[in-house]
Design a protein that fits this description.
heterodimer; A: alpha/beta; five-stranded mixed sheet; four-stranded mixed sheet; 11 strands; globular; B: alpha+beta; five-stranded antiparallel sheet; three-stranded antiparallel sheet; about 15% strand
Amino acid sequence: MFVKLLRGVRIVFLTGLLLGVFVVYAQDKPAVSFQSTQFNVVEETAKIQTILEGFDGDALFVGIQEGPLIDLLRAEKEAGTGATDVAGALHGTFPVLAKDDALFNLSDLTASIDAEHDIVDSYVELGKLGTSDYQYYVPWMQATYVMAANEEALQYLPEGSDLNSLTWDQLAAWGKNMKDATGENKLGFPVAGLFHRFLEGYIYPSYTGGMVTKFRSAEAVKMFEYLRDDLWPLVNAESANYSFMNEPLLSGEVWVAFDHMARLKPAFDAMDSGDTDLKFVAFPAPSGPAGLGYMPVIAGLAIPYTAPNPDGAEALIKFMMSPETQSAVMRDLGFFPVISDVDTSNMPASVSALSGAVAATSGAKNALVSLLPIGLGERGGELNEIYRNAFTRVVINGEDIATVLQEEGDTLNTLLAETGAPCWSPDPASDGPCTVDAAS
Amino acid sequence: MRKVNLTPYLLVLPTLLYLILFFAYPMVRSLSLAVSGEDEYLDILASPDAGAEVSGTLAMQVVVKIVDRVQQDEVLPNGRTRPVYWFQVQGLDINRNEVIGWANQRYLFVESRAESTEARVTSGVPVQGWTLQHIERMFNDFRFWSAIRNTLLLIVIVIPIQFVIALIMALVLQSGIKGSSLFLYIYAIPLGISDLAAGMVWYSIFTQRGFLNSFLDRLGLIDTPFIFIGNDKFGWMMLAIVLAEVWRATSIVMVIVVSGLQGIPRDYMEAGEIFGATLWQRIWHIILPILRPSLQVALILRTILAFQVFAVVVAIAGRDLIPVLANETYRWYNQGDAGFNNPNVAAAYAGLIMLISLGISLFYLRALRSQSEQAAL
C-alpha cells in the first residue's frame, strides 16, 4: 500500500517536473520560424540548419519556393495571423509583398546592424524599394554572375588578352581559336536558365551603358550584330538546353561558360573534392565599349506583420548578419557577405576562385552596376521575357534587328508605363516611368 | 399517371456532380479568364475610414498631391503596433475631374509616408470587364504560328506511325506465337515512365556527349560529336521528339487495339480463312472494320494527348527552339523568373487547345462512323 502511494507520488512529481521544464523552456525560447526561398534544396537546407544551430534560440528553417512563399504570406496577412517570423528571399520577391503592405519597417534594425557591421550602402537603398524611409528587407547576402573556363581552354586565349579584362571581341576570338583546334564550339551559355540576366545585366550595359533606355539604340543594334554574327556561330548549339552550366563544364562539352556563381560552384567543388580531373578558373565577364556591365543578386530578410514572435525574428536577423554567420554562409553555401567586417581567409579553393572573379569584376575601373528591375513588382518575369524574345527573334530566328527592337521596345514601354516603374541603375534616373528612347 | 423511375438518375447523379464540379466549372472559369480583363480603380473616401462614403475614383499609376495625412496605430496580435497612414489626396479622376479624398497607405506608393507631398496610385479594387485583348495578344505573339505549326506537324507525323506500330504489336500479341505474352511486358515498359523522364532518356541519347554519339564514335564513324540538338537542327530535334513520343505512347494505343481485337469472334476469321483470304485481306476487310470503334477511341485519345505534348519537347529541345501550344500556355502562365505571369493569355491558349481538340474529335466521330450509324442518319 505504502509502496503504491510512493509510486503515485513519484509519478505525479516526475510529470510535474517534466511539464514544468517544458513550460519554462517554451516560455524562455519560443521558436523562430524562418521561411526562405534560398537554400531550399535538401543539401543546402541541411547546411543552413547546421549554421542555425549557433543561434541562441530555436530557429525552424523551412525551404520554400517563391510562389508558395508569396501565397503563404498573403494568406497570413488576409487572416491577420500567421506562423512565419522571418522571410528570406531574393530582391525580386519583395515588391509583391510590399505592394500588399505585409512587411514591417525594419529601418531601426537595419541601422543598428549597419552601425555595427557596415552593410553595403547601395543594398540598403535597394531594400527600401524606392521609398526613402521604409526598409522592407535587410540585405542578407549577395551573389553575381561570372565566367568559368576549363584550364584546357587557356592555351587558346587570343594573344595580348588578359583573362581578367577580356573584351567581347576577344571572347569571340577565343571561341574561334578553340573551334579551329578542336572542331567543336566550346563556348556555352545557360539559355534554358538565367540567360536573361546575361542580356539585361551584362552585354546590354557593356555595349549601350544602359539596360532599358538604350534598348533600341545604334549600340544595341551593334550588340545584336555581334551576338548573331560573331559570337553565336561559335557557341555550343546545345546551349538552348543548358540551365546549369556546371554540367556541360564537367562533361567537357563546354570549356568556357557564363552563369550564376551558385550554378558554377558545383564544378569547382568537384575539382576541390577530386571528383573530376578537370581544372577550372573563374574570371569576370567581358567588357564592351561602355564598360563592364555586371549584376549583383541580392537576397534579403523581412519580417511580416503577422509574425508571432517579432523579437525572436529580429534576433535571428541579427544572427544571420553577424560576421561569423556571413562567413559560414560564404564557406558552405557560396553566397557572399554584404557586410564589411567578415573574415574571408580560410575559404575552400572553390569559393576563393569564385570570389576572386567577383572581386575582379566589382573592382574593375570600368565596372557598371546593373540592378535588378525595381518597381515592376510581380511583372518582373515579363521584362525577362522581352529580352529573351528579342534575342530569340534576332539570333535564333534571324529576324531583322531594327524591326525586332522596335516591336519589343514598344512592349517594354507598355510594361514600364503600366507599372509606372522609374528607371533604375545603370539607366539615368527618371521622373515618371522609365521609357525606351526612340531608335537613333 | 405513370410512375417515374428515379433510380437511373440517382445512379448518374454522382458522376454528373463530379463532372460539373471538376470539369465544367473549371472549364467555364478558364474560358472566361481568356476573355475577361481586370481594370483596377481606387475609390477615395470622404473621411479616413474604410466605411466612409466614396468621393472619387482614380485610375492606376495616377500621380496625386497629398493634402493631408493622419497616422493611426494598429495593435497587432503579436503585441507590436504598426503605424497606418491615411492620406488625403487630390488629383484628376477617371473623367479628368478634380477630386479630393482619403486613401489607405496600402493603395499608394509614397516615397516617405511621413513627409512626401506626392503619391502614386498602385492598387485598388479590380473591376471585371470583357475584352478580346488577351486573344489578340496570343495571335500576335511571334511564337504563336510556329507553335501551331509544330503541334500539328507532330500530330500528323506521330499518330499514323503509332497506329501502324500499335496494330502490328497487337496482332503479334494476338497471334499466339511462342513467347508472345513476353512481348506484352516489353511493350508495357514505356507506359510506366512519365513523359518528362521519357524526354530525358531520349535527350541523353541525342545530346552531344550522349549514347548515340559515343556509339558512332566507337564504331569509328565520326571524329567529333555530331550535334543533333541545336538552333539549326530543326529536323533532327523533330526526329528525336517523334521517336520519344512514339516510344512512350504507342503502348496506350496498343492496349485499346488489343481489347478491340479480343472482341472479334473467331468465326469471322475462320470464315475468311476458308474462303482463302490472305492475311492482308483479312486485316483490311475483317479486322479493321470491326476495330473501328476501338480505333475511334484511340484516335481521339491520342490526338487530345498530342495537343498537350509538352514535357518531351522541353526535355529535348529546351524552351525556345521548338515552340508547341502546351509549352506556350505554360510560358504565359509561369510566375517565375522568366514567364509572363499572365493567366489570361494562358487561358486563351488553353481555350484554343480545347477548341481544336473538340473540332478534331467531332471530325473523327463523323469520319469513322460505321455503316449502321450512317444508315441511321
